[in-house]
Amino acid sequence: xxxxxxxxxxxxxxxxxxxxxxxxxxxxxxxxxxxxxxxxxxxxxxxxxxxxxxxxxxxxxxxxxxxxxxxxxxxxxxxxxxxxxxxxxxxxxxxxxxxxxxxxxxxxxxxxxxxxxxxxxxxxxxxxxxxxxxxxxxxxxxxxxxxxxxxxxxxxxxxxxxxxxxxxxxxxxxxxxxxxxxxxxxxxxxxxxxxxxxxxxxxxxxxxxxxxxxxxxxxxxxxxxxxxxxxxxxxxxxxxxxxxxxxxxxxxxxxxxxxxxxxxxxxxxxxxxxxxxxxxxxxxxxxxxxxxxxxxxxxxxxxxxxxxxxx
Length: 311
Fold this sequence. Notes:
Oligomer: single chain
Structural class: alpha/beta
Family: Belongs to the LysR transcriptional regulatory family.
Domain HTH lysR-type: 1-58
Distance between the termini: 33 Å
Order of helices and strands: HHHEEHEHHEHEEEHEHEHEEHE
CATH architecture of the largest domain: 3-Layer(aba) Sandwich
Organism: Pseudomonas brassicacearum
Radius of gyration: 21 Å
CATH superfamily of the largest domain: Periplasmic binding protein-like II
CATH class of the largest domain: Alpha Beta
Protein name: LysR family transcriptional regulator
Shape: globular
GO molecular function, one term: transcription cis-regulatory region binding
CATH topology of the largest domain: D-Maltodextrin-Binding Protein, domain 2
Number of helices: 11
């Protein structure tokens, strides 16, 4: 069993398709199929089940995927150790879209300057998908809306965010979700924590949320709101960065829906040199907003003001 085989196995498991995994790894599909068959023959088990034209992990495959993430982490740790513990090698960081746009550029620049031997890769997605990436080992760390009720994770807070509802400029003041019930809501796809907050706000006020219109950019959401097509939820910092922000009405929310904290999270026991280096950069940039590490016990007993889960 070779690391190259395990990287192919991991890519196919995450993509659910040999073709997409081949595109991701810049290899031909036939090569991946051959290497996977060799791995299955060596282990004496089937690693995948074919369901509805998609490859699903078998029970044995799920076990191997978990060990694969641990092996890659140990590989990177060993690489750093023989180089005197200096950060080096691959480091895959997940981030929410808003964090990527507002807070990440400066952190990335400082990290690249300080640790040029690290191959830092950034993947943007909703919080739910990022947490799934952490649990499967696809991501080394992730900046998410948290902390969430998930066991086996450690984390440190990055920064606090204030959330606001935006509507067309001439909309009357919004004092509760009843004032916008039935309106279309512009949001990211399922798994977005801000979307879950918005749904919880409507439920709390016993108001009916209108149709969720999924748009994969805050600029697109803002344009639709300016046109009078509906409402959207975003952080004040995100709104402040968008051209055209003066063309909407901004409505503050009541607690607990007005506040959110962005956390850097990772799997317990996976705190290697690259991640430690990122935490140092993060703490230097945000100072007191990024204090001591918070541990999440086996019951995951940290919670948000609403029930959160991976979609």
